[in-house]
Amino acid sequence: MTAAAESPFSLHGRTALVTGSRGGIGRAIAVALARAGADVVLHGHHNDLDDVEREVRETGRGSTRWILDLSDTAAIPGAVATLPAIDILVNNAGIIRRAPAADHCFEDWRDVLGVNLDAVFQLTRTVGAGMLARRHGKIISVASMLSFQGGLRVPGYTAAKHGLAGLTKALAAEWAAEGVQVNAVAPGYVVTDNTAALRADPVREAEITARIPAGRWGRPDDIAGAVVFLASPAADYVNGHLLAVDGGWLAR
Question: What is the pTM of this model?
Answer without folding.
Answer: 0.96
